[in-house]
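pinned: reference chain
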Amino acid sequence: MSGIAFAIQWVRSLLFVGQIYLMMPVIGLVFAPWAMFSRNGARICCKTYSRWVFWTASWMVGIKTEVRGTPPTGETLIASKHQSFLDIMMIFTALPAAKFIMKKEILWTPIIGQYARLLNCVAVDRGKRGAAIEKMVADVASGQQEAGQLIIYSQGTRIKPGVKAPYKVGTGVLYEQLNQPCVPVATNVGVLWPRKGIMRYPGVAIVEFMEPIAPGLRRDVFMAKLEHDVEARSDALMREAGFDPDGVH
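pinned: its structure tokens
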């Protein structure tokens, strides 16, 4: 990308980022009377906002979104790669009844935090690992009366493309406790929508729902398979977007 093309794309990115943050409280407030009394209303609000982001991304900064594989519809644990805000919206929109395991600080974020509570997301204190895992399991168990898809980011945070980070044990604990299939999800969105900064790059952002891992595996076997499958497929998707994950040091 030439200097002039980069500058134009940066300005377009700035306008795009500005309007999506402006539209967040607008859409959130429009739906608030319904969302406060209906979890379905809260879901529709979040999906409406996400689709607005997808639509404006396509013509403002040239990012197209694509969901591959078969999103699950029943009670399932979903363990996903996490690279930016975009993969959150893509996964959520693809599922009928999604809720996230997330760091508790998000609950205090304007609009996002309020809707996370309405969607019955599970907040975790990442600074207290043992207690956090116990509370996460208890909170998940208490919310099992509502069927849905529970999403956990196995590395615990957004990971820059090409950077390796360990998979945390919480995913394995939930896999054992829930005794449900686990659907791995791979992505390349961080190549186009970085976790930090203004710049957005044109291309096809992909999240891919992979073949479920059946319940019953030993925890260490499950964790090794999950990490191998998600990392290998995410690397392939990043290469498809023109990024070499092996070239990052």
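why pinned: Strands lie at 63-68, 76-80, 98-103, 122-124, 149-153, 182-187, 203-209. The longest helix spans residues 3-35.
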